[in-house]
Amino acid sequence: MRRRWAAAVAAAFLLLLTTARPALAGPPITTAIYTADPAALVVGDTLYVYTGHDEAPPGGTNFVMRDWHVFTSSDAATFTDQGAKLSIADFSWAGADAWAGEVERGADGRYYWYVPVNGNGPGWMDIGVAVGNSPLGPFTDAKGGPLVSDSTPNSSPLNIDPTVFTDDDGQVYLYWGSYYGLRAARLNADMTTLNGPVVTPSGVSNFWEAPWMFKRDGVYYLAYAANDSGCAAPGHACVRYATASDPMGPWTHRGVVLDQVSSTTNHPAIIEFKGQWYMVYHNAAAPGGGDFRRSVTIDKLSFNADGTMRKVVQAGGPVTPGNLAASATPSTSYVSPWETLGAINDGHTPANSADHSHGAYGNWNHQGTEWVEYRWPSAQTISRSEVYWFDDDLGIDLPASCRLQYWNGSAYVPVPGASGCGTAANAFNVTTFTPVSTTRLRLSITSRTGYSTGVLEWRAFA
Ligand code: FUB
Fold first, then answer.
1. Going by CA atoms, what residue is nearest to atom 4 of ligand 1?
2. Which residues of the chain fall below pLDDT 70?
3. pLDDT attached to residue 17
4. pLDDT of 241-265, one tens digit each?
5. Which residues form ligand 1's pocket by a CB distance below 6 Å?
6. What are the pLDDT digits (tens) for 321-368?
7. Segment holding 299, helix H or strand E
8. What pLDDT, on the 0 to 100 scale, is given for residue 285?
């Protein structure tokens, strides 16, 4: 007989002992607002994260960005929003598009915030600079006009995303650009004027935008967003990086340090804080998030002995774009004490129905109907479910049947127009239905006689 309870119990406890399930997707540094394009700076015992502020409405298809916020942390885990410390209105010559900036301390001890903005002059984006006496400002326009614009000789096809780096000898470097046009220049000690020509660095393979420069053990690193098919789905970006022995290059491409995220754009900041390296980046994982409603998050980063960077593990695993489960809180009618409910939305794609390498939800030794459920803090529009069943060839088997329900505000009701509820092994079982707006989606699972049921992964999509 296929079911052997003693073996099942033994296997279950072995699983308990051996399965190290990754943590759930790292939480956004805030869910009070949508944030994007992080830059990081350490001053004393404080980690400062400077972010853009996405204000697009739900379903919006353009960036709506008017100001920048500053967040502080003493542990790189909890962050305090210090508020909007700079806005488009602070630049009299600019009118919109408060995109990705970075703050650097000048030799004069003041803090310079370089930001791309839509200037009111010819062309689109320019780079301006504000200055303040502390990392929290107050900041004012330091120049009264762009530092870089379309009229700057050899400027980028899109003058955005400045990264500023100060070498040990005090020389300051500015890198920036988009539309495959990376550019670099030295800055004067005044932090507000270019020192010498704008150059086009070489060796930075597949550069798209979002450069971030830093130095470690005498090696210069340049991380950047790349959108080639070798690392990201169409319309998305990964983060590649290059190294050099001189801050102006030439650079040598070293590979991918962050895979595609759930937003189309990707944007790194890499920093050492209290002895630990981190990558700060954004995705679309916050409740109600999207490509224009992004959220900044942070994960640890580490180096190999040869100085190459290990790929950042996005806590919870690679993100499936648009998967609303990533931002949901799961609950259930019953989970076996040695199983892991959180495995169902950790982003892992199972190799087969017995693949519990990332943990599994299972309800052995319950039989009959049990359920798992996702809850979101605000209503989500959902029209598609994908479930990958767990079958351990012991006490947990594929279900006899299942059904999808949603909370209509007062009761659970079947999702309308469901295409079915598949129970196949070794694949995501896809159910499509008429879109519902809800804060809760429930998957009711009925077992085969004599067996319990389990789920490896459950995705939900708009
Ligand atoms: O946030 C607007 C733009 O999207 C940034 O400047 C890019 O880096 C990308 O994240």
1. 265
2. 1-26, 316-321
3. 27
4. 999 999 999 999 999 999 888 889 9
5. 36-37, 52, 63, 99-100, 116, 160-161, 209-210, 265, 267
6. 678 887 788 999 999 999 989 889 877 778 889 988 778 999 999 999
7. strand 295-301
8. 81
CATH architecture of the domain covering 5-10+320-461: Sandwich (2.60)
Check residue 99 and give its pLDDT.
98
Q: Which of 266, 376, 239 is nearest to 321 (CA)?
A: 266
Q: What is the CATH number of domain 25-301?
A: 2.115.10.20
pLDDT at position 26, please?
60
Backbone angles phi, psi at 79, to 5 degrees: -125, 145
Strand partners, 40: 49
Q: Which residue has the CA at smallest separation from atom 1 of ligand 1?
A: 99
Atom of ligand 1 lying closest to residue 37 CA: 10
Choose the residue to mutate in 158, 209, 295 for probing ligand 1, maximizing ligand atoms within 8 Å of C-beta.
209
CA of 360 to the centre of ligand 1 (A): 36
Note whether 390 and 362 are within 8 A (CB).
yes
Q: Is 255 left (phi over 0), alpha (psi -120 to 50) or beta?
A: left
Distance 265 CA to ligand 1 centre (A): 7
Predicted confidence at residue 315, as pLDDT, reads 78
**Residues forming CATH 2.115.10.20 domain(s) in the chain:** 25-301
Q: Where in the chain is the domain with CATH 2.60.120.260?
A: 5-10+320-461
pLDDT tens readout for residues 178-188? 999 999 999 99
Closest ligand 1 atom to residue 97 Cα is 2
Rounded to the nearest whole angstrom, what is the distance from the C-alpha of residue 92 to the centroid of ligand 1?
22
Q: Which of 127, 161, 163, 224 to mutate to test the pocket of ligand 1 (most atoms within 8 A of CB)?
A: 161
Q: Where are the beta strands (DSSP E) in 171-265?
A: 172-176, 183-187, 194-199, 209-216, 219-226, 238-244, 252-258
